[in-house]
Automatic annotation (TrEMBL):
GO terms for molecular function: catalytic activity. Residues 35-133 form the Endonuclease/exonuclease/phosphatase domain. It comes from Prunus dulcis. SUPFAM superfamilies: DNase I-like. PANTHER family: BNAC02G09200D PROTEIN, ENDONUCLEASE_EXONUCLEASE_PHOSPHATASE DOMAIN-CONTAINING PROTEIN. This is PREDICTED: reverse mRNAase.
Amino acid sequence: MNFMHVVEPRRLSGGLCMFWKDAHQVVLVKYAGFLIEVGVHDALMNHTWRFLAVYASTDAGVRRNQLGVLQERLNTCREGCLVMGDFNDILDASEKDGGRPRSVPSMEDFRRFVTYCNLLDLGFEGYPFTWRNRRDDGGI
């Protein structure tokens, strides 16, 4: 990896890092405490697209503001966009295991964001949960 961009963590939380090979033309567009946005040019296809890497807050109020910033960024994007990262939220109760159940209203901000921005969940492979308090079953 010949190039990178880092958003430093605040105390014990957050922080983002993005690496790319020099074979790719990548231009930093914007960064914030929870976001790195780059423009990626595919020379073979002569096409440019945006990549937004996200690490959203666990605090619902802060996350709501962050989703607003992301929505503005996506509204101004004229190219194709890929948004990826940890939003620290869920769209459906089935995405949560253990702890207190989430109410439907508590998921509305994230659902509205995904719907309004016409985002598509690409799914995942592997273990469905990023961490688990009971660490005896292979989770982090």
